[in-house]
Amino acid sequence: MLSEGIPSLALLEPNEYKYYLISIDDKDITKLTMQLTTIHGDPDMFVSTTTTTPSWTDFEQRSINAGLYPDLLIFEKEAGEDLAKNFYISVTSFESSSYSLVFFTESTNGNIGIQKLLVGRKQKGVFHINNDLDTPDVPLLDQPSLTYHFQLTNKMLKDGKEVEIRLNSEHGEFIYLVEAEQVPLLTYDFDEANDDQWIGGEIHHVAIKEEDLDELMVDTVEDDRDETQFDFYIKVFPLVREIDFADGPITQPYVFNLAFYDEEQMIHLQEGLP
Q1: Which CATH number fits domain 1-111: 2.60.40.1230, 2.20.25.90, 3.10.180.10, 2.60.120.380?
Q2: pLDDT above 90 for 18
Q3: How far apart are CA 192 and CA 199, in angstroms?
Q4: How far, in whole angstroms, is CA 51 from its chain's centroid?
């Protein structure tokens, strides 16, 4: 069974199937999104709510992107029918492949599922830009967002070590905000010259250092400081402006990679030594 927001990584041999289950029991869930990200090869995803082993000939939705972009399969609540049911997923490939599979939900109370970042593992995000704008002068307000979570301890930052967050745009520009202990909120007067808030087409690094945790540990007993865990959240938005719609609707997805790296777990190479 898949757990919400936690990526499942897997390898496939040619013509092998792997099966997954998502069980939704909350009737307030309004949207379920499944994301298949190709690492290599060309895996295909099939989803059904009726058969436990969906396939090429028996499915309700299937992936179509051939590994070029992450595949998003979305189920939305409809009148008279909720999403409180089981969703059966199969992933297969004609060739050796590897992939990451994750799901998240949205509910009537505004809650959006948070995805867990695993240290050193890039996670790909994709936005299909909303062209049906309620606020055409500030189109950013009408766009979706993705939220990620990871945990740090003070011990990971001892002796000058850093934890590094890297966001790389494959297509499009993005705003991303990082905050401890709570999900960050977008402020609409953001400064586009602030590199901590937006990124174009290059890799961008944000480093978290030991002093960044000092304020969080004011009430922490000295003996517990090294092992105390702190929650960090990253929120990513597609950065779209009014001028971006001048030539018509935006049809190409905005795609990025996001990861964080713990210096303690990195392998340190010495010059000339293999």
Answers
A1: 2.60.120.380
A2: yes
A3: 9
A4: 28
